[in-house]
Amino acid sequence: MLRSAAFRLAMLQALLFALIALMLFLVSWLAARHYIENQLRQAIADEAGEMASVPADHRAAAVQRALSQVPRNPFDYSVFDRHGALMVGDLLKQPRAGWSVIEQHKAGTGDTQRILVFANALDDGSMMVVGRDLESVEALDSLLKQVFSWAGLAAVVLALAGGMVTAGGYLRRVEAIAGAASRIVAGDLDARVAVTGRNDEFDRLAFALNGMLERIQMLVEGLRQVSNDIAHDLRTPLTHMRQRLEAAMDEATSVESYGKACERALADVDSVLETFAALLRIARIEARQRRAGFSQVHLSRLLEALVDDYQPLLEGEGRRFIVEIASGVRVHGDALLLTQMFANLLENALHHTPPGASVALKLHAKPQGCQVVIEDTGPGIPAAERARVLKRFVRLDAARSTPGTGLGLALVAAVADLHNIVLKLGDAEPGLRVQLDFVEQPDM
Question: Computed from CA positions of residues 151, 153, 155, 158, in that sequence, does the dihedral angle turn out positive or negative?
Fold first, then answer.
């Protein structure tokens, strides 16, 4: 706690509160003292004016009457003649004309008191002096100092306590994130950062980290799956190639037979190379290396060009091709990858539907994007297998007899993920329905 950044922040906050309290004290103290001194000066000046208005021959008596009213009368008075001698009053020393502060011993106690006085020269050459003890002002000064000292100390303590509580909360959240990271480093890829539901900066960080961790887990599991699938699926063509080469070495008796064996081996090598090329394409797409080349793509024209290419193929094999393409639909993406994605889906419909089946390609504009649907009346994909067929090298039993690597739908899923397209495999009743929702607002 003491070495944490949160604690240092709490200390800085406490220091800031202390400085604010000090500034408030200085401002309040100066304002209060200035106000009280002004009131005191005004009262003294008014009293001095009243005394100066008393006729000279009655002035001494007026001063005596005022002094006899103590303690109800809080003022001090003195009248000095033109030579500075005290004529009457309790202020023993003649001050200079105007405002000043004098000190003298308080009668009966011996304590020194400070008195604010106003000396006014009169017409007859004498000087009238009226003053008032500053004890009330000094008592207020002392009270303000005590109040603001305790208030400042309380503010600092509360700020420090609040900072400690805040620092403890921050440390607990940081430790939770650090603990999740430690579990992931130890190999627990299922670990996630807890979300409190407050939607604060830590929750937003947790959402971002959890999204990153899910992506990492998916990539690691994909890598593990690819490693296993490569070892499993490439064993067959490599084994066939070895057997054919061994058979050629043992049985071939002419150049022609050797040539045929080499052709079959080259076909197996091409199949392996085609598989690796497809894997590399998927890897590049999943690494999001193609996003920098995104631009506006005229999706309607792209699909119309694919219709021109595949309609003769589908109808030539006895299939009905239904096309509904909205005009003027544009999306943001990579035209080559989108073309490859739709071509893979049409290839699947071509290879996995019987003659006489129907294949439909539909593009609809939506208020917040657009939707592409490719469906057929073929055998379809069972609901339990629809998530699995989007992975690499997955081929259903019904498709084992057709050529392929099991990477077509995996590439479709990778391109859809790169473009933030929501990919859904459903039931066309009968057949397969592939729905692609572009969530971006299309440029119509």
Answer: negative
Spell out the alpha helix ranges (H) of 293-407.
299-316, 335-351
Q: Phi, psi at residue 316, to the nearest 5°?
A: -65, -25
- Give the phi and the psi of residue 396 in degrees, each rounded to 5: -75, 160
169-217 pLDDT, tens digit each: 777 878 888 888 888 888 787 888 888 887 877 788 888 888 888 878 8
pLDDT of res. 399: 44
Query: In order of start, what are the domains of the chain with their CATH numbers?
Result: 5-139 (3.30.450), 201-286 (1.10.287.130), 292-438 (3.30.565.10)
- For the ranges 31-35, 245-249, 305-309, 438-442, the lowest mean pLDDT is seen at 438-442
Which pLDDT score, from 0 to 100, does residue 227 have? 66
The string of pLDDT tens digits covering residues 385-421 is 888 788 766 656 444 444 555 677 888 888 898 888 9
Residue whose C-alpha is closest to residue 43's, from 126, 117, 141: 117
In contact, 134 and 116? CB cutoff 8 Å: yes
Residues 404 and 295 sit within 8 Å (Cβ to Cβ):
no
Give the per-residue pLDDT at 444. 37
Query: Looking at residue 438, what is its pLDDT?
Result: 92
SS3 89: strand
pLDDT band at 20 (very low <50, low <70, confident <90, very high): confident
Amino acid at 283: A
Sheet with strand 86-89: strands edge to edge: 86-89, 75-80, 127-133, 112-121, 98-105
Alpha-carbon distance of 79 to 126, in angstroms, equals 7
Q: Where are the alpha helices (DSSP H) in 186-321?
A: 201-233, 235-251, 255-286, 299-316
pLDDT for 397 = 47
Rounded to an integer, what distance in angstroms lies between the CA atom of residue 342 and that of residue 439?
Answer: 17
Tokens describing residue 172 = 């607990």
**Number of CB atoms found within 10 A of residue 431's CB:** 21
Do 14 and 156 meet the contact criterion of CB atoms below 8 Å apart? yes
| Token pair 């219709």 in the structure block, residue | 307
- With vertex at residue 53, the alpha carbon angle to CA 50 and CA 56, rounded to the nearest 5 degrees, is 125
Q: Residue 108: which residues within 8 A CB-CB, separation 6 or more?
A: none
Q: Please say whether the beta carbons of 159 and 151 come within 8 A.
A: no
Q: Which of these, 213, 221, 208, 223, lies nearest to 182 by C-alpha position? A: 213
Confidence of residue 304 (pLDDT cuts 50, 70, 90): very high
Measured distance CA(95)–CA(82) in Å, rounded: 13
